[in-house]
Amino acid sequence: MTKRKVLVADKLSEEGINILQKELEVEVKTGLKEDELVKIIKNYDALIVRSATKVTRRIIENSYLKVIGRAGVGVDNIDVDAATERGILVVNAPFSNTIAACELTLGLMFSLVRNIPQANQSIKEGKWEKNKFLGLELYKKTLGVIGLGRIGKEVAIRAKGLGMNVVGYDPYIAKSTAAQIKIKMANLDELLKVSDIITLHTPLTKDTYHLIDFREFEIMKKGVYIINCARGGIINERALYDNLINQKVAGCALDVFENEPPEDNPLLKLPNVIATPHIGASTKEAQKMVSIEIAEEVIKALKG
Ligand code: NAD
């Protein structure tokens, strides 16, 4: 019997490729543009992407795909409505990135309050600006965690270990989850009012698009710090920029942007913004696990 064909359109670790090859004919072609994908997609039963490839309605409607696999959590780079209309399953690998994204969030939180990237830059420029980099301690500060799913929950647990007060907002989780990790739950406005640092861990959906907008910044404490390791569109970048300029927000750390790569995004010109190029999932462990998880999910979906 001829094997079904899978196109791997973004980089995937070899552990996952090996699993796919046992059951399927695998072709790896990365960096394809939409037009190129439209031309070749009818040859495949399955497509696997990470975040670089945007799986548009045009690609989907020119395909005979049975399944689209996203090697990661968020499926916002896939037109899920278009896939559903054609009966194409969309599967993801939600469990592999959790610790990687959580640990990057913590790294950015320490970097923010102690100005580590700015101090590093300064000393490499030959300066010794001891007085410029007066930081804050995390101990006893209040961390607001918006979205208490896999990543948010791990961040909350570790923040408590650092002696922080943790307040969570997530309208969809069971009360028992918050009780289990012993954090206070609040509504969004209460969280914004009391937090010294706010970290975002929701998916990007129609409901969470610009969840943090001009109104929300108004409610926040002066001198608040913001971390976004989830998805760019959750914060209105224009509102964030204005509130960094007027010093309502003391600093922010971004791993994700409304447009990626962010190119000439004015946020990157501000000294109190630290940024990383969407590396939340970029650990050796996560990349290996994500490739295995998505390979198994795609094979399972093809077998029905
Ligand atoms: P998850 O689905 O386990 O958790 C998301 C949580 O957000 C859920 O508990 C859900 O109830 C909550 N939520 C949904 N809508 C909400 C709203 N309007 N207000 C408050 N809470 C809301 O997802 P996860 O695995 O924890 O991932 C969280 C985010 O991190 C996703 O956006 C994901 O794409 C992103 N992520 C980014 C990277 C990176 O490289 N930076 C890596 C992994 C995950």
The secondary-structure class comes to alpha/beta
Overall, the morphology is: globular
Residue share in β-strands: 15-25%
Percentage of residues in helical conformation: 25-40%
Output the number of helix runs. Answer: 12
How far do the termini sit from each other? 17 Å
List the ions, cofactors and other small molecules found in this model.
nicotinamide-adenine-dinucleotide
How many beta strands in the DSSP annotation?
Answer: 12
Contiguous runs where pLDDT drops below 50 for at least 5 residues: none
N-to-C order of helices and strands:
EHEHEHEHEHHEHEHEHEHEHEEH
Largest sheet, spatial ordering of strands: 8-7-6-9-10-11-12
List keywords for this structure.
5-stranded parallel beta sheet, binds nicotinamide-adenine-dinucleotide, 7-stranded parallel beta sheet, single chain, 12 strands, alpha/beta
Structure commentary:
The chain is of the alpha/beta class. Helix content is 38%, strand content 16%. The chain has twelve helices and twelve strands. The chain has helices at 14-23, 34-40, 57-61, 80-85, 98-114, 116-124, 150-161, 175-180, 188-194, 214-219, 237-245, 284-303, and strands at 5-8, 25-28, 46-49, 67-70, 89-92, 142-146, 165-169, 184-185, 197-200, 224-228, 249-254, 273-275. The strands form two sheets. The protein has a seven-stranded parallel beta sheet, sandwiched between helices. Strands 2-1-3-4-5 form a five-stranded parallel beta sheet. Helix 1 (14-23) packs parallel to helix 12 and helix 5 (98-114) crosses helix 7. The radius of gyration is 21 Å and the shape is globular. The model has no long low-confidence stretch (mean pLDDT 97).
